[in-house]
C-alpha cells in the first residue's frame, strides 16, 4: 500500500521529510508514529494509516515533497504488494522506408510523428497523398524537450540546496533517483564522489556571502517554508491596512475581578485574549465577507468560524486553529487556547490542530508592540493583531481621564472588501470589547 503525505491545509502545498521513525523491514501498527514532517504551519509526527511492514521509503530525509505525493510503501497482510509505477513503453523503432525505384524523386511516408512547426506530419506544404522530395526521417528527439530543460524545472530540498551551494555544484548536472526524478541528498553525494575535481573549487564571492566580520545562519525547514508562504501572500494579495483605537478599561477591570477564581476553578489563566477572541468571532459572524477567501472569479464565504492563533514557538511561528470559535464561551476559549498554546510550543500539535483556519489573530501586544502591519495568512481574506495595553490620557465625555487603551490593527485583501466593509468589522470588534463590564459573563 502506498502511503501519501496528507494535506495539512489549503495554503500548504509541500512539506519537508524531517526524520523517518521507522526503518525498512520494521513492523508498523496503525497510528504508530511513522515519520516527522515539517511545514510552515506545524512540525508533526505523521501516524501510519495502516498496520503492516514498511517495505520501501520513497522520500528521503531532507527532501521536499508535494502534499499528496507517495512517501513510502507498507505491505498489509492479505493485500497484494504495491507495484512500481509502470514506465511508459518505449516507442517502437520506425520501419525503414521502402527503397525508391529508379527514377523516382522520393517516397510516400505515412503515420509519421508530427515534426513540422505547426504540428503537421511529413514535409510542410506537401499533401500526404503526394510524394515528397527529400522527405525527412522521423525523429523522436524532435518532439521531446531536452533533458536539461526538465532538470532546470526541478525543485530541490533545503539539504540538497545547501550541499550544492557548499560545493559550487550545478544541480542540473545531477541525475535524480527520487520521486519523479527528484534529486536527493544521496544523489548529490554520489555525484560529488564521482567527480570531485569538477566541483571542489570554492564559489566566487557574491552578494550575500558573509565577510570576515559576519556569520551565516542556515535556514531551518520551518523558516524556509514560512518565508515562501509570506512571499506568496505579499505578492499575490493586494493588502490594505488600518488601525483602530479601543478603550479596554472595562475589560481590564473585569478580567482582574475574575482571574483568581477562574484559575482555581479551571486550572488555567484567564488572559485578555479569550475576551477579544469572543468579540472577533461574533464580529466575523456579522461580517461574513471578512471570513472568506479569494477564488479567482468568485469569493468563497466560509460557514464555520475557525480562528488561527499565531504562537511564537522555538522552531518559528505556528498557527493552531480554534475551530468553531463562535460556539464557545469565554471560558471555553480560554481552556482551548491554553491547550493549543502549550502543545504548539512543545511540538505536540496534530494535523487537525492546524487545518481549516478561516481567519487569523495575532497578539503582538504580548511582545510589547503598540502598532503593527500584519501579513495575511494566505489564502485567508484578513488578519487582526491586538497590541499592548497602555495607560494614557484620553478624552472621556467633556473631561480627560487616564484610561487603558489598546490598538487593533487590521490587514485585509482589497480584492475581497473595501474600506467600508473593513471598518464595519473593526468597529464591531471595538464595540464588543468596549462594552465589557462588571456583568459580563465568561460561561
How many structural domains are formed by the residues? 3
Strand content is 15-25%
Unreliable residue runs: 100-152, 197-204
Number of strands: 21
Text of the CATH class of the largest domain:
Alpha Beta
Helix/sheet category: alpha+beta
CATH architecture of the largest domain: 2-Layer Sandwich
What does this 3D model show about the protein?
The protein has 10 helices and 21 strands. It has 443 residues and is of the alpha+beta class. It has 3 domains: 2-75, Beta Barrel (OB fold (Dihydrolipoamide Acetyltransferase, E2P)), CATH 2.40.50; 147-205, Irregular (Dihydrolipoamide Transferase); 238-434, 2-Layer Sandwich (Chloramphenicol Acetyltransferase), CATH 3.30.559. Strands 11, 14, 17, 18, 19, 20 and 21 form a 7-stranded mixed sheet that branches. The chain has a 4-stranded antiparallel sheet with strand order 1-8-6-3, with no helix packed on it. A hairpin with a 4-residue loop joins β12 and β13 (299-301). α7 packs across α8 (330-346) and α7 (273-286) packs across α10. The protein is elongated. The relative contact order is 0.11.
Give the SSE map.
Layout: E1 2-4, E2 14-20, E3 27-28, E4 33-38, E5 43-47, E6 52-57, E7 64-66, E8 70-75, E9 106-107, E10 132-133, H1 147-152, H2 158-166, H3 185-194, H4 196-199, H5 221-236, E11 239-247, H6 249-266, H7 273-286, E12 292-294, E13 299-301, E14 307-309, E15 311-313, E16 316-318, E17 321-322, H8 330-346, H9 351-354, E18 359-362, E19 382-386, E20 390-396, E21 399-413, H10 419-434
Parallel strand pairs: 14-18, 18-19
Antiparallel strand pairs: 1-8, 2-4, 2-7, 3-6, 4-5, 6-8, 9-10, 11-21, 12-13, 14-17, 15-16, 19-21, 20-21
Amino acid at each position: 500500500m502506498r502511503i501519501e503525505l496528507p494535506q495539512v491545509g489549503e495554503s500548504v502545498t509541500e512539506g519537508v521529510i524531517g526524520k523517518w521513525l521507522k526503518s525498512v523491514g520494521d513492523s508498523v501498527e496503525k497510528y504508530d508514529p511513522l515519520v516527522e514532517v515539517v511545514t510552515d504551519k506545524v512540525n508533526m509526527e505523521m501516524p501510519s494509516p495502516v498496520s503492516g511492514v514498511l517495505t520501501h521509503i520513497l522520500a528521503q530525509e531532507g527532501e521536499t515533497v508535494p502534499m499528496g505525493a507517495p512517501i513510502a510503501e507498507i505491505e498489509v497482510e492479505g493485500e497484494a504488494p504495491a507495484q512500481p509505477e509502470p514506465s511508459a513503453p518505449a516507442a517502437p523503432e520506425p520501419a525503414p522506408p521502402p527503397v525508391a525505384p529508379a527514377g523516382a524523386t522520393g517516397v510516400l511516408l505515412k503515420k509519421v510523428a508530427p515534426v513540422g512547426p505547426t504540428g503537421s506530419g511529413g514535409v510542410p506544404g506537401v499533401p500526404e497523398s503526394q510524394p515528397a522530395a527529400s522527405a525527412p526521417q522521423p525523429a523522436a528527439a524532435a518532439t521531446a524537450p531536452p533533458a536539461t530543460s526538465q532538470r532546470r524545472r526541478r525543485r530541490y530540498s533545503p539539504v540538497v540546496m545547501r550541499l550544492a551551494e557548499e560545493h559550487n555544484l550545478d544541480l542540473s548536472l545531477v541525475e535524480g533517483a527520487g520521486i519523479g526524478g527528484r534529486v536527493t541528498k544521496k544523489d548529490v553525494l554520489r555525484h560529488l564522489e564521482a567527480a570531485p575535481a569538477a566541483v571542489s573549487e570554492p564559489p566566487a564571492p557574491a552578494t550575500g556571502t558573509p565577510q570576515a566580520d559576519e556569520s551565516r545562519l542556515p535556514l531551518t525547514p520551518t523558516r524556509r517554508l514560512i518565508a515562501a508562504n509570506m512571499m506568496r501572500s505579499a505578492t499575490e494579495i493586494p493588502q490594505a491596512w488600518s488601525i483602530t483605537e479601543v478603550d479596554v478599561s472595562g475589560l481590564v477591570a473585569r478580567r482582574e475581578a475574575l482571574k483568581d477564581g477562574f484559575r482555581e476553578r479551571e486550572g488555567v489563566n484567564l488572559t485578555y485574549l479569550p475576551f477579544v477572541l469572543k468579540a472577533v468571532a461574533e464580529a466575523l459572524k456579522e461580517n461574513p465577507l471578512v471570513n472568506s477567501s479569494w477564488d479567482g472569479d468568485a469569493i468563497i464565504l466560509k460557514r464555520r468560524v475557525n480562528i488561527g492563533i499565531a504562537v511564537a514557538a522555538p522552531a518559528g511561528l505556528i498557527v493552531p486553529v480554534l475551530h468553531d470559535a463562535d460556539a464557545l464561551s469565554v471560558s471555553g476559549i480560554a481552556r482551548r487556547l491554553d491547550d493549543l498554546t502549550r502543545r504548539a510550543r512543545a511540538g505536540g500539535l496534530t494535523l487537525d490542530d492546524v487545518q481549516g483556519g478561516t481567519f487569523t489573530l495575532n497578539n503582538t501586544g504580548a511582545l510589547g508592540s503598540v502598532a503593527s502591519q500584519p501579513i495575511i495568512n494566505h489564502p485567508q481574506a484578513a488578519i487582526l493583531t491586538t497590541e499592548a495595553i497602555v495607560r494614557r490620557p484620553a478624552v472621556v465625555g467633556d473631561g480627560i481621564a487616564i484610561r487603558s487603551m489598546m490598538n487593533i490593527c487590521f490587514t485585509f485583501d482589497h480584492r475581497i472588501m473595501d474600506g467600508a466593509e473593513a471598518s464595519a468589522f473593526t468597529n464591531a470588534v471595538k464595540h464588543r470589547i468596549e462594552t465589557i463590564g462588571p456583568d459580563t459573563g465568561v460561561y
